[in-house]
C-alpha cells in the first residue's frame, strides 16, 4: 500500500560533515521523525502513549546508505509497515532526494510496544493491531 510521506525536510549546511554530505546522525534523526508519523497512523499517537502509559522502543535498526545528500537537498521519507506481531512491529523507511527521486537511504527498524512503568513489552491494543493490518505493505513492496 503506497503511503503518504512520513517526513519532509531539507538538508541544512550545519547537518553536513567535513566531507560535505549529510552526516549519519542526521539520517538517524530524520528517520526517527518519520517513526512518529508512522506510529500516529497506527493509533500510537502522543495522546495514546501518554494516557496509556505505553511507549515504543527500537530494538534493532539497520541503515543502508545509497547516495549522498548535500546541503540544500529536499528530503522525503515514505514508510512501509512490514510486519506486526503481538508486541512488536517491523517497518522500513525509504529516504529519497525529493528533487531527483533518487533513493538516498533505507532503514529497517524493529520496535517493541512497552509498558513505560514496568519497563516490559506488552501486547498492542486490538485497535492498534487492526489499524496496523490495514497498513501492511504488499509483498512486492517488501
Automatic annotation (TrEMBL):
Ranges in coiled-coil conformation: none
InterPro entries: 4-hydroxybenzoyl-CoA_TE, HotDog_dom_sf
Matching Pfam families: 4HBT_2
Transmembrane segments: none
SUPFAM superfamilies: Thioesterase/thiol ester dehydrase-isomerase
PANTHER family assigned to the protein according to its UniProt record, in alphabetical order: 4-HYDROXYBENZOYL-COA THIOESTERASE FAMILY MEMBER, BLR1345 PROTEIN
Name of protein: Acyl-CoA thioesterase
Organism expressing this protein natively: Bradyrhizobium agreste
Amino acid at each position: 500500500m503506497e503511503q503518504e510521506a512520513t517526513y519532509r525536510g531539507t538538508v541544512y549546511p550545519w547537518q553536513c560533515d567535513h566531507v560535505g554530505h549529510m552526516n549519519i546522525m542526521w539520517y538517524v534523526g530524520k528517520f526517527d521523525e518519520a517513526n512518529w508519523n508512522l506510529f500516529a497512523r497506527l493509533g500510537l499517537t502522543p495522546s495514546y502513549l501518554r494516557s496509556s502509559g505505553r511507549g515504543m522502543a527500537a530494538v534493532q535498526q539497520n541503515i543502508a546508505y545509497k547516495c549522498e545528500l548535500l546541503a540544500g537537498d529536499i528530503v522525503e521519507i515514505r514508510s512501509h509497515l512490514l510486519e506486526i506481531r503481538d508486541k512488536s512491529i517491523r517497518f522500513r523507511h525509504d529516504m529519497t532526494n525529493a528533487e531527483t527521486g533518487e533513493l538516498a537511504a533505507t532503514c529497517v527498524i524493529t520496535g517493541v510496544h512497552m509498558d513505560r512503568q514496568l519497563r516490559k513489552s506488552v501486547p498492542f491494543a486490538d485497535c492498534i493491531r487492526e489499524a496496523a493490518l490495514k497498513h501492511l505493505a504488499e509483498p512486492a513492496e517488501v
